Every structure is written in structure tokens, then in C-alpha cells.
Amino acid sequence: NAGVTQTPKFQVLKTGQSMTLQCAQDMNHEYMSWYRQDPGMGLRLIHYSVGAGITDQGEVPNGYNVSRSTTEDFPLRLLSAAPSQTSVYFCASSYSDSKTDTQYFGPGTRLTVL
Amino acid sequence: KNQVEQSPQSLIILEGKNCTLQCNYTVSPFSNLRWYKQDTGRGPVSLTIMTFSENTKSNGRYTATLDADTKQSSLHITASQLSDSASYICVVVTGGGNKLTFGTGTQLKVEL
Questions:
Q1: I need a surface site. Which of A34, A40, A74, B75 has the fewest CB within 10 A?
Q2: Average pLDDT for residues A90-100, to the nearest whole number?
Q3: Of B53, B24, B44, B25, which Cα lies nearest the Cα of B88?
Q4: Does A2 have pLDDT greater than 90?
Q5: Which residues of A touch B95 (CB under 8 A)?
Q6: Exposed, middle or buried by CB within 10 Å (0-12, 13-18, 19+), for A54?
Q7: How far apart are CA A66 and CA A44, in angstroms?
Q8: Average pLDDT over residues B14-38
Q9: Chain A closest CA to B78's CA: distance in Å?
Q10: Is residue A92 a contact partner of residue A76, using CB atoms and an 8 Å limit?
Q11: What is the pLDDT of residues A11-52, one digit of tens each?
């Protein structure tokens, strides 16, 4: 199993550009989520999904969209990039949203917005 | 406000030595507490998950403890190795199950 994969690994955008961060998992996990990690702060939840066709907002959803058309894929879209969105983005998945399910994280995408 | 505070912020130890990392939380209602290891440039990897009724859990040389009364947890690393150099993140999950509050991590460096 490849686990959770993310592409690209690095990305530089100009203010106002849009892009999609890709996330895929091959573990047949129902629950997937996106986090951002900023210096001096803990990971913060952007959006999450409890299954195909179902998404919901996390703690910091503004400026991001998600969709979940398949169990495997959970892309994160930046609609109009802003410098405040410079961060490292992690996708994670777990078998369910059960309280004790282990979450598996991808390797991250480092995004810089100029 | 739900918070997770970790100490120390950073730590340097010699290879072979033991160390203990601390985590205090104010998250409520409590569901479970997790410790993750994050290598530089990588995603976090789960080390332990402890529910309210568990006060200790081990994973190899890593042993986590939980005192739900005082809302404190610790992660003890025994006989440290160079590969233990990483950030260790404490995460507390609320009773709802899908709300995770992350600490900012303790940066551990193991030197020869």
C-alpha cells in the first residue's frame, strides 16, 4: 500500500492564482481531512469528509474548497491564493471518524504564495 | 478555549539517554489523547492513543502516560537513538470524536 499520497510536494503561486492540491489514499478509508501547519502553531483542520459525497468545514475553511467524488481522492482547491495561505498542507485519512481510529498523514505540500 | 500546551519547546540529549516530554491540556469533553512523531519534512506518524480509562501505553521505546484528573500526559523515550530526532506532537480529541486539538510540539534532537 502507498498509504496517503499528496502532490505536488512544493508549489509557488502568485497572489490571486488558483490551484488544486491532490490527496489520495489506497487503504479504503472513509474519513479524510486536510490540515495546515504554520510555524509556532498546531495543525489546524481546514475541511474533512466522512465518506464519498460528504464534506464539512473545519476550523479554518475560508479560501478553500473540497469535494469527495470517490473514496480514494480528496482534493483541496485554493480559489484565489493569498500570502496568508503560505503554509504546509497535510492530508490525513482514517478508517472511520471513530474516536480511537489511527489517522495516517501524507507527506505534505509546502505552498508559498507571493 | 480548548488548548494543548507542550513543554519543553525544544530539547537536546545525548544518544542513549532517556527523556520525558510533557503535555497539559484544557480540552473538554475529553475523548482520547494521542502522541505523534513528525520527522522534518514528513507528515506526523501516530505513536500512541490513550482513552480516558488508560493511564499508560507503550510502543517500543516510547511510553505515554495519562492523568485525566490533572489533565496531563507525558511521553517517555528510553535509550534514545539518533533517529528519534523529530518533533513530538500531543493531540487531544474531544468527546465528539472528530475535533482534534494539536499542540505545537517539542523539537527533540539526539546527538552523539
A1: A40
A2: 85
A3: B44
A4: no
A5: 99
A6: exposed
A7: 16
A8: 95
A9: 23
A10: no
A11: 999 999 999 999 999 999 999 999 999 998 999 999 999 999
User: Per residue in A46-76, pLDDT tens?
Assistant: 999 999 999 999 999 999 999 999 999 999 9
Determine whether A83 is exposed, middle or buried from the number of CB atoms within 10 Å of its CB (0-12, 13-18, 19+): exposed
Contact B4 A106 (CB under 8 A): no
Closest CA to B80 of B7, B9, B11: B11
Of B41, B45, B97, nearest to A98 by CB-CB distance is B97
CA distances to B30, B59, B112 from A104, in Å: 21, 17, 31
Q: Do B46 and A103 touch (CB under 8 A)?
A: yes
Chain A residues with CB within 8 Å of chain B CB: 4, 31, 40-45, 48, 50, 90, 92, 97-100, 102-108
